[in-house]
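note to self — DONT lose this again. spent like an hour looking for the file last time. sequence + predicted structure for the chain T wanted, 676 res
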Amino acid sequence: MTGNGAAATADGAGARTWQLTAAVFLAALVVLILNARGQIFFDTKLGVDLDPAGFYARLWHLWNPDEWFGTLQDQYIGYAFPMAPFYLAGQLLKVPVWLTERLWLSLLIAAGFAGLMKLAEALRVGTDRSRVVAGLAFALWPTFTIVIGSTSAGILPGLLVPWAVLPLVRAAGGGSLVRAAARSGAAVLCMGGVNATSTLDVLILPAVFILTQLRGRRRVLLAALWAGAVGLATAWWVVPLLLQAKYSFNFLPYVEQSATTTGTMSAAAFLRGAGNWTAYLNLGQPWLQAGWVMVAYPIAIIAAAAAAATGLLGLARRDLPGGGWLRLSVGIAALIALAGYPGPLGGLFHHPVDQLLNGVAAPLRSVYKVEPVAAAVLALGIAHALVLRTRRAAIAADPAPRALWHLIAAPVIALVMLGLAYPQVSGRVLNSGSFSSVPNYWYQAAAYLKLHSPRAPALVVPAAAHGTFLWGQPIDDPLEPLASSPWAAQGLVPYGGAGSELLLRSVEAAVNSGERIPGLAATLNRSGIRYVVVRNDLSPASIGYTPPQVVHQALASSGFRRVAAFGGGVSGAQSGQGTGPAQDVVASYPAVEIFVAGKQGGLPPPAAVALPVSRTVLVNGGPDALLQLIGQHVLAASAPAVIAGDRLVARPALWAVTDTLPRTDHAFGLIDPTAS
């Protein structure tokens, strides 16, 4: 074939790829629009969805003064590209948030499809038809489907990793090394920085490609250039992450442990892309709707198993281009994923691996994040396995066997694709609890706090572990994107540190008791809290739900009065949550109320005050002891207090010894009572 003919063929193949990609994008968009049409679903960060411009405005400072009494930003910088710009464009173009969400997800699916197809084409794996099947299988792989409707930014690295490998394939064929490294780095840049482990894991694929597919000086040079390009592409979020790791509170011991993350990662689950532990989480209803379908519905399980088996068949064939690279990559990924699995075919040394993942390797304990490597490899295996090969010349020259093969394979492939796409076609791909908008009364409450308490934090009660409201499940607290003044609420993860979390837990327990709590107002006052925001629109079905009348009884008997109320009574019938006594109780209260201690005017506190050292009280206990000490009149409301262990420049006026730390061990795990 002449050079012009080869170029024309390549141009034609490229045009077909982009036409198919456009078709996949439109098909995905239609399906996603039909899933909870007109409704917003929670996708990673509520602020990125609702107000990306405001999110950008708060993004550039490492310190976040508005939440948890002040804390370092938790990888928020990772949303700066490409997710937040996409949502910002939607905001500027006045595109409804719910439609922007669908456009974003459709773009991710199309990008994964196109990347896998072009990679297979560059590697000369499969045929035009089998590459289409492989691209669809990759875009619909369970490891992506499980979380695409809840944390789409987390799957960006996996869906884009074929694009990071593609330039390297061209370099291995004699292309420019500098250009290849730069283009691969650009693909890594587009992976974002929402989750460092997800990005680190998928880089196994291009790194192993360089090590196995190039030789001599070109391998060394490309490895150096590629490492530099990746460093430049990730520096914008790696540097803030390192600063956070150095200076912020280490909350990893207080989240999921390795026994949880590795317990669902069997060999079969790894190959099917179903090892994500959150897919198995059921709190009365599945935590991830699409995840539950992929791990509990036979049609989805069988389809994923068939796809994985086909991929393995392709990997086992000797004529697979780049077979050594692909087999080594999936082997490394399997070793990482299965090393801590305690079940059959799991790691022989899973006990020390679990200890390692709960220790210095804690950031890597979510081992399912390496699954995209297997997804890409097995998808390429599918493209190769679907090509009929034979050594018999007579059969190879006869088109009849191929026609029969296509006739048999087509319906089977269609059924497998339907099974992989079952969450999408059954309306379960997006997380449950979608909502049309955040109610206006939350905007009003945020505006009130901005006007009356621009510097002092407001306490939000009762706590909402999973953000389940009568009007939907935003997961994040509505004040996170709406408030421009400080606020605090007890959460599942102590981002602000152990001290502030203990204080919040003691106050939350007091409010949830429904009883008169002596010293509650004074404790909040000495913590800088002037206002208490009571949310009556929490769903009674949420875990740990506290009825509004209990909260009101505790505040009223403890000396608080209401100063503002927003929204009418919210009933279960109005929100689609059903009816019953709990909903009737909710309907008798405004949706959001703001309280202040009876004698306080709600004026902002001074920026700083000076107190005599001679009045200092040394508290041998945790911050949660302050409420008890004040209530028992051991600690005066205005007396300065120092927690034992903090530096004290003079002898205290009083040394108060409490038992809060031993009691805290069982509830929070702050100390080990058996330690010497």
